[in-house]
């Protein structure tokens, strides 16, 4: 059995080998991602969109995140397991951020991730012994502030760069760059010591993060920033239809499936 990847190991991968990250939300997706050999598994608050049926990540609660972290952690043996701090679990105070991160680690996470310019919170969480991943560019929890799902860094380039450098100085072991121009992500990647993990941010990031349901063909929509690597959704619908037909035709169960 391979030893589990640590946050310092992920940080040391910058400039060496690209970091492969994938979301997972339960035992099954966690097991698939881990056995596939990804380096980092993120229990993202995107669970709200792809598992819980919310229109955004905003309704996701800390209790829901704890539930999905527990389920996913039971399957993960090799990858670094990172958990998102959801909206409302870290914005009120530094102590709130620390308490929320501790809850997710007690649920099974190895590290926490938060969105935006929360450098004091990053330092305080790390002081408790919990590694922190940052997130700049488009941050889904701020979708109402942005006026929708929009690429960031075209008009506010200097602000995105400032935030990335601030989080780097605060000591994040890695940072997600989401929906920013490729040229800007290249500049940020070269200017920070922490590895950058892109999503819709070009090829020059130190790694890539994608949503499990998007790459597996389980999402209802397709997006520019991703690619379907396995058409699992179509295969599952086909299998369910075949099952339904077999039941209605009385060709299942057979004697072989009976006791």
Question: How would you portray this structure in words?
Answer:
- It is a single chain.
- 39% of the residues lie in helices and 14% in strands.
- By secondary structure, it is of the alpha/beta class.
- It has an 8-stranded parallel β-barrel, surrounded by 6 helices.
- Helix 5 crosses helix 6, helix 6 packs parallel to helix 8 and helix 8 runs parallel beside helix 9.
- The model has no long low-confidence stretch (mean pLDDT 97).
Tell me the span between the first and last alpha carbons: 37 Å
> How does the major sheet shape up?
8 strands, parallel, barrel
Largest sheet strand order: 1-2-3-4-5-6-7-8
Main structural class: alpha/beta
Count of strand segments: 8
- The string of secondary-structure elements, in order, is HEHEHHEHEHEHHEHEEHH
Strand content: 5-15%
Question: Taking Cα atoms only, what radius of gyration do you get, to the nearest Å?
Answer: 19 Å
What would the principal axes of the Cα set say about the shape?
Answer: globular
How much helical structure, as a percent, in the residues? 25-40%
Question: Treating each run of at least 4 consecutive H or I residues as one helix, how many helices?
Answer: 11
Mean pLDDT: 97
Low-confidence stretches: none
Give the helices and strands, then pairings.
Layout: H1 7-12, E1 19-23, H2 27-35, E2 40-43, H3 47-50, H4 62-73, E3 80-84, H5 94-106, E4 111-113, H6 119-127, E5 132-137, H7 143-146, H8 157-170, E6 174-178, H9 182-191, E7 196-199, E8 207-210, H10 212-215, H11 232-248
Parallel strand pairs: 1-2, 1-8, 2-3, 3-4, 4-5, 5-6, 6-7, 7-8
Helix pairs in contact: 5-6, 6-8, 8-9
């Amino acid at each position: 059995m391979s030893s589990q990847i640590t946050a310092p190991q992920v940080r040391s991968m910058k400039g060496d080998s690209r970091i492969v990250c994938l979301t997972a939300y339960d035992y099954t997706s966690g097991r698939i991602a881990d056995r596939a050999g990804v380096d980092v598994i993120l229990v993202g608050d995107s669970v709200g969109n792809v598992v819980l049926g919310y229109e955004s990540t905003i309704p996701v609660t800390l209790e829901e995140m704890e539930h999905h972290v527990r389920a996913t952690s039971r399957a993960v043996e090799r990858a670094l397991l990172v958990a998102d701090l959801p909206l409302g679990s870290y914005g009120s105070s530094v102590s709130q951020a620390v308490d929320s991160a501790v809850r997710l680690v007690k649920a099974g996470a190895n590290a926490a991730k938060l969105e935006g310019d929360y450098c004091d919170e990053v330092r305080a969480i790390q002081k408790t012994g919990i590694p922190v991943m940052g997130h700049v560019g488009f941050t889904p929890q701020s979708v109402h502030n942005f006026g929708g799902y929009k690429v960031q860094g075209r008009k506010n380039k200097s602000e995105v760069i400032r935030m990335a450098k601030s989080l780097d100085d605060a000591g994040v072991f890695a940072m997600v760059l989401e929906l920013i121009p490729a040229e800007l992500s290249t500049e940020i990647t070269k200017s920070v010591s922490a590895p950058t993990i892109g999503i819709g941010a070009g090829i020059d990031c130190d790694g890539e993060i994608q949503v499990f349901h998007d790459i597996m063909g389980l999402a209802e929509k397709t997006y520019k920033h991703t690619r379907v690597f396995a058409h699992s959704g179509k295969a599952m619908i086909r299998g369910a239809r075949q099952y339904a037909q077999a039941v209605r035709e009385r060709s299942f169960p057979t004697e072989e499936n009976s006791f």
